[in-house]
Fold each of these.
Amino acid sequence: MNYRERHVVVTGGTGALGTAVVAALLEAGATCYVPWLHEDEAQRFTYREHKQVRLVGRVDLTDEAAVGRLFGDVTALWASIHIAGGFAMAPVAKSHKADLMRQLDTNLVSCFLCCAAAINAIGGSGQGGRIVNVAARHALEWRSGAGLVAYTASKAAVAALTVALSEEVAKDGILVNAVAPSIMDTPANRAAMPKADHEAWPKVEEVAATILFLASPDNKVTRGAIVPVYGRS
């Protein structure tokens, strides 16, 4: 896939999946804009010195004005990939409104604001573009969300947002899709579940490959898809 002279925003780009996505984009020739909120994210980011990386901070992705500034500084945006989000596990009976709102802000609101800003930025080029969101397996398989209902609801909303938005902007040449990962093979997840079958988990590079295709010019027809990326799990 050829991303030469393509400009791409990657939220959550300093995380495990985000780093894999940025690495693949850089190899394909893209210029990547990677927002960060906390200084340590930027400091540990593998590609912080890469000539095709623009680290942008501090950016609160739940702040509409901050998101507007982020996208306003991107020249000729081609694609926006929204990986940033959060996870929380708690039964409803022990959760509060603040817990629910935190999940909605972190997962749904950040995605919504970035989609809106991306559409305006892409629309300015007149060349069309791509948006890829990150939902979750729980967004498709709701019954598996017992014990993490707030998270499941927020990711299901991301999936619904993706499908509805894909219909809204298809006429503008903007194709919107999402991936729905199961638990991915990362050092943090291995540490949290040391007895799990780690080999069955999808690797971040494998999930990144699916994202890269959906965000690429090679994707000419796929829109409104929530693509399961489960590996063998």
Amino acid sequence: MENRKKLLTAGFLTLIAAGIGFAVRAGLLDIWSKQYGFTMTELGQITGGGLLGFGLVILIAGFLIDFVGYKRLMVIALVCHVVSALMLFAATPVFNASGKDAVYMLLYISMFIFAIGNGICEGVINPLTAAIYPEQKTHYLNILHAGWPAGLVIGGLIVFAKGIIGWEILMATFLVPVLMYGFIAVKEPFPKTARESGAISYGGMFAKLIGPFFVILLIAHACVGYVELGTDSWINKITGKILSSVTLGTTLFIYTSVLMTALRFFAGPIVHRISSLGLLLLSAVVGACGLYLISIGDSVPFMFFAATVYALGKTFLWPTMLGVVGERFPQSATVAMALMGFAGMTSAGLLGGPGIGYKQDYYASQHIQQSNPETYARVKAPNENQFLFFPAITGIDGAKAGMVEDNGAAITSEVEIAGDRINSEDFSALKAQYEWWEANKEYASTDAKPVSDATLHGSRMALRVTALVPATMAVLYLILIVAFKAPKEEGDVHLADEAPGTEL
């Protein structure tokens, strides 16, 4: 198609928008924890909601493309992104009026709607790119997905303005690329899918996917979602904790994202030398090493080295997985990539974000209970958290930990700003936090180090356990390399041999 560069640009912009939203949200976790009193598990559930919705909608969008069309789905995504941004501005008034549970639900729903928009875009742009660049699918899918780390870079830079500009405005900055991709989507024509052009039936697309190769790919991609997106939900906060500097953590996050953005433009030559599956195997091994190295890091130079290894490992995983699907199942791309996206994003949402949050709470609370039970009794959350079939735990309350660490500076300032309104129902949650501080501030100097040590231990152990996931992926890729040597399903043809029509 003559306009395929414009369509690729629109897809690139959707991932920039998603990356900005993801990065800014990750950079705001400490603010949300201190301002609203969330535990690590609750923060993980909020970020997980943003990924869970992403996965569900990728699946639905992928199945609808052949009936609704690329263009209409992109317009629906545009609406979702705008609605999600508008909801953010109600967060603090809702907290002041109704407390922690209400703002938790508001943020969760906003992130879920944001994820719906992202999921629709992801469900569209992957098969679209494979269709308009049939001769170099893996290469252009990696270029397309360079938009994700590019968005992370922009979002990471935006995070530096927190404390200066309201977090709601910072979070809503993803609307800029949203409006840009919306303009292209409304204006440009899109190609028809393989089913619309009569190349294959809907049932035929599913039939070609039946077999162990695709099942193993789905399992591997669920692991990719966990280790890449689940970890990235937390990596900014965790590295900032390890380095005792939020700024350094954000800087490290930006650095790895810049590295990923640049490397994804060179996937084609690498794949040409070692094959797509070879690249995936190498990436998984390097990624596991990178996570372990970060977990034991204790200095800035070492952490930059460890983060470099981790970035090299995760850079090619997601887009190259899609490239393998596009190469092996070209006529089934819309549904195959939808199933892959669903597996990856759902794993990140249900397992990655919440699971890594749970691991932090588990190891942190275990550490502080053993070393300083009196401190734990004062700073523990008022509620238990559960993750899957693992035992229920009571983590450290983020607001209490924040007050202990800054010696009550933030809560005292907020109460002074509230003034006489502190006794109204609109500020009941803030008042409860301040009352806790007044009752426990005499222990702040005693509790500060145990709390800090426990949260640091939880962060390190969470990453160390997570390193087992890419190690598992490496085994799966090795199975695919050894057991399945054919480059694609027999009988599949490239869309380059067809003449796709145009959807107006």
